[in-house]
Structure formats: C-alpha cells, structure tokens
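Design a sequence for this backbone.
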C-alpha cells in the first residue's frame, strides 16, 4: 500500500453485494434447491422467491444502481441485466472500487437482508440453516476469494439459535471470515435483547471476540423504521433512521457486555457520526446521575431500591475502547471530528445504493477530512479499518 501515510486509497466498511441469481439454487443439495431462494421471471421482472415470499430486485434493501449508475430515484432496475455488473460480479466490483480509490470493501447482504433476517423468518429452520451456510461459503470462497486482498469476508449467522450461531462463527472464522452481521435491535425481531438477564447472546459474542470478529450492525437491520405515528411520512422515517443506531450504541454500552467481554467490538454502519458527541455526553450525564443516586442510597442502606448499571467507567470511555462508526457524506459529521476519538472513525462508500458517493468518493470524503493531518486522514481512511478487521488490502 505504500507509505504509512498513504491517503490516496480508502477502505469502505459499508458496501453491499447483490447475490447472483443462482447462489442457492446451484449450491444447496439438489433435494433442497427447489425450496431455497431462487430467481424467476414474472412478466418483465426477475423476482426472488423463497417460501411464500416474492421480492423484486428493487426491494433488496435500498435503491440499486442501474447499469450506468443511479442518478434518478425513478431509475429502478428490474432484471440482473439492468444492474451494473459490479453489483454481483467480484471482478467487476474491483474495477469500480479502483475507479473510486477503494482498496478494500466490506459488503452486507441484499436478499438475506442486512443481518440475515430473511432466514430468521423462515418456517423451515433446517433449510434456513443450510441457506445461511451456503451464503457464508459463497461469501468467503467465491465473492472474496475471487479477488484476494480486496473484499473483506462478512458472514451472517442463524439468529434463531445462539448455539448454532456460535458454531457458525467458529466454522467461518476457520475459513477466513473477518466479521459478522448482527441486528441493530434483536428485540424488534422477536429475539432476546442485548440486556437479556440470562446473557443470551454472550456465548456468540464471546466466541466472535475470541476470534477478533467485530459485530457489524447496519442501519435498518431490525426491520423497523422509527416512526412518530403510523401515518408519518416516509421522509420523516428516513430522516429519523440514524436514531436506530444511536439506540444500538447506547444499549450495548449500558448493557455491560463490553465490560464482561473486553475484546468485543461493535461497528455501526450508515448511521453517520454527527450525533455521537451529543449521545456520549448524554450517556455520561446519565451515568453520573445514576452513580450519585446509588451512592446516596447505599449510604442510607437503601441500595436495594436502586437498579445500577454494570459499568466500571464512563460510557464515553467504553465507546472509545469498543465502538466504531463510519462517515459517508456528512458535512456536519466532519465538523465534529475533534469531539470523537479519531481511532473510532472509519469511512464508507455504500456502493451500490442510491446515496453512495461513488464514483466521486475520493473528492467527497477527502473534502470532509481536509482539516486533518495526513497521519490522521490515513487512520480514518484505512488505518482504523485495517486494525478493526485485521485485514491488509492488496492491490496486486
């Protein structure tokens, strides 16, 4: 990669892959292929079919690039031929990465949804587990291995069974996986929360931490939008969407999970960074108030009346040691970089979604980091991602 302050290239820690139409039909055992996810043409569209669900390409998480890129929200691809090949072909993806000076990319799923919720919702859990394993093998052995050193292996887990999820972390880590996806709020998916009194998720999280695999939480991975009312506008919900990741960060900090698992890391994708200084200030304020109330209660023999958190330090200190966020195209966020530990900030391009900065990412992100020194820009552009994901890009 050149000198240690090479600021010409970046690692994007939030992009997306569009799974090829034969991913499951060609790789599941033959007796399961017809029941697994498959693509069929209905009228003038290619549609994913899984169980009783049908999902068009345009419904895969967000608006996707057409063949020439997207500059119009009405430009909706209907078939794979309409998509830019870099959406689903790793070699074509690398060409598009090179065009935007992206040395490495971490790609979230599309059809399975950002945390694999599609398989969580399946009634056939045995088939769903096979689908998870097929996806992960394809992600590691084909999508990433086809272009060594350029794509960071990110896997999904069977969310409905924490022991199966733990074992899938073990299996994929041995194959080279570098991170796994986790929903921003599992409670919204009908699963135990991160606060669960029985520490439901901790066998999975401890196993991941032992293997240096961060939990990557993408905005929208709870399959819910923040809404003030059922009739609120979609624009309001989209504007409020980063609140989901604010909730994630605060929940994980106050749950005490980072204290119990010191090597655990959490990466927040596509929520921006502008809200982080206020959220941490508020967390620290709440921490100090609760600590003061507990001490007063204890001095009066009433500590049993006050619930107390599991933290042994300020929430802002927990954040600095365990939580990472990324900058996309956020002028205000870039203005508060002096109020966030730079060691906790990475960058994203969000290819191939409609709000991507591609192909102008070097200019967009470069402008937002212009107040930093070359050494600081290097850390945000790629140094922090190299460290968090234990991945060194290779430009061949």
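Sequence:
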């Amino acid at each position: 990669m050149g000198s240690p302050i090479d600021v010409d290239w970046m690692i994007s820690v939030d992009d997306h892959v569009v799974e090829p139409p034969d991913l499951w039909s060609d790789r599941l055992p033959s007796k399961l292929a017809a029941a697994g996810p498959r693509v069929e043409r209905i009228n003038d569209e290619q549609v994913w079919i899984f169980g009783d669900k049908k999902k068009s390409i345009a419904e895969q998480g967000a608006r996707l690039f057409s063949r020439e890129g997207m500059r119009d929200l009405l430009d909706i691809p209907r078939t794979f031929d309409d998509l830019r090949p870099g959406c689903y072909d790793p070699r074509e993806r690398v060409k598009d990465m090179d065009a935007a000076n992206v040395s490495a990319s971490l790609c979230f799923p599309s059809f399975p949804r950002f945390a694999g919720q599609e398989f969580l919702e399946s009634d056939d859990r045995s088939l769903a587990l096979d689908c998870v394993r097929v996806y992960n093998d394809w992600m590691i052995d084909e999508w990433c291995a086809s272009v060594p050193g350029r794509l960071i292996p990110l896997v999904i887990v069977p969310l409905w069974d924490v022991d199966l999820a733990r074992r899938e972390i073990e299996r994929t880590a041995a194959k080279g996986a570098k991170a796994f996806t986790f929903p921003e709020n599992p409670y919204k998916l009908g699963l135990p929360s991160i606060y669960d009194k029985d520490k439901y998720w901790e066998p999975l999280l401890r196993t991941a931490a032992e293997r240096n695999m961060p939990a990557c939480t993408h905005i929208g991975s709870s399959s819910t939008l923040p809404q003030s009312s059922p009739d609120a506008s979609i624009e309001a919900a989209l504007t409020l969407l980063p609140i989901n990741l604010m909730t994630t960060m605060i929940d994980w900090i106050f749950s005490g999970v980072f204290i119990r698992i010191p090597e655990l890391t959490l990466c927040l994708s596509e929520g921006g960074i502008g809200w982080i200084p206020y959220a941490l200030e508020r967390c620290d304020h709440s921490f100090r108030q609760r600590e003061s109330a507990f001490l007063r209660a204890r001095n009066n023999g009433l500590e049993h009346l006050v619930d107390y958190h599991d933290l042994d330090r300020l929430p802002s200190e927990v954040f600095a040691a365990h939580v990472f966020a990324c900058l996309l195209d956020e002028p205000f966020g870039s203005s508060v970089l002096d109020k966030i530990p730079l060691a906790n900030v990475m960058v994203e391009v969000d290819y191939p979604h409609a709000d991507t900065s591609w192909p102008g990412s070097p200019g967009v992100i470069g402008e937002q980091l212009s107040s930093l020194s070359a050494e600081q820009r290097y850390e945000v552009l790629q140094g922090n991602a190299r460290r968090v994901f234990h991945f060194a890009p290779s430009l061949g």
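The two ends are 10 Å apart (CA to CA).
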